[in-house]
Amino acid sequence: MPSSTSNFKNRLRLPRLFFRQPTKAESIHGGPPLEFERPIPPVPWRGIMVIVAITVIAATTAWEMYCRSIGYGPTLNDGEDFWTMIRRRVQPESVVIIGDSRGWYDLDLDELQKGLGKRPLQLAMGGGCGYPVLADLADDKTFHGTIICSFVPRLFLAPPGTPPWERGEKAVRRFHTQTPAQRASQYLAFPLEEHVAFLKQEELTLDDLLKDLPIPNRPGALVPPRLPPYFGTIDRERRARMIEECARGGKLASTIQQIWIPLFTLPPPPSYIPQDVFMAKMKEAIETRFRDTISAVQKIRGRGGKVVFVRLPVSGGLKTLEDQTTPRNQTWDPLVKGTGAPGIYFEDYPDLASFFCPEWSHLSAGDSVEFSKRLVPHLRAALKM
Length: 385
Description:
Blueprint: H1 4-12, H2 45-69, H3 80-87, E1 95-98, H4 101-106, H5 109-116, E2 121-122, H6 131-139, E3 146-150, H7 153-156, H8 163-177, H9 180-193, H10 206-210, E4 232-234, E5 240-242, H11 244-247, H12 251-263, H13 275-302, E6 306-311, H14 316-325, H15 332-339, E7 343-345, H16 350-353, H17 365-382
Parallel strand pairs: 1-2, 1-3, 3-6, 6-7
Antiparallel strand pairs: 4-5
């Protein structure tokens, strides 16, 4: 009597592409159940394994050497899971830095800790809108600490659906929905990213390398502005530091300067919307953001928390562009007046206004330390410490 295992194998009808063909005797009607076997080719598997391993190691080493030769170095990738890791450390009375990349690069945690008595948590993000983070902290009823918010009008006032808004919104969403696997993956990534340069996820993937191809604008298909190349490192506290090559103000700095201009230039209104209608919608969106920000600040201050807005240094052609497209009297002044929160505008203080950003938007690592040291007395006065 055939066993159940034999009957199962007979019914299974395995594909014969990779299996031995039955012999003529096995194919006779009424013969024993057919059992297909996958043959192992008689090749030197050990030698093949060695050759594959050597090829992979050689290719990986060559790619790593090439990435380092063009200026890249090992650094952590700043994704939603990394941001969430720091967000989980926020305690009810924490000092938190939020906003854009200027708060990320320009504020030194060591100097702020010396001056404020607590080590801040770094929740600012490159190219991100700070409002979703501010709103999330406002909705956290346990939080009544201090928020230092870097304010770049082009980013903080970005409407929903734009890249700056989505960057901030995705980070907040990941904090509330992160899975154990995503959390573990971030911890496992640290040792590799700290030692391998080609793991820069936002620049050295095939998709990002293809974006660098010089494709011209075409009717109905505008090429988005390029993002700046690698010019800073990030540590496990999410502290960003400008690399020396950029801080020297050479070719890398000048290249980034020319990238900022199209990135911070307002795009033309869509052709299918009348310009006056488009401008009215933009004005309404900005007013809505101001109202929402006022509400968020009131929630935090109502629980005993503090919020201070900081306008950090900007230089050269980018400063000229920002002053033209987002003038102070239409952005900074309504923000500070409406929220009632203290504000520190770098141009108002001679000791803060003398700094120059090598690539026009961020301070060098050394200047960030000195700037933070000078900023501390102004923060203490604004926070009434």
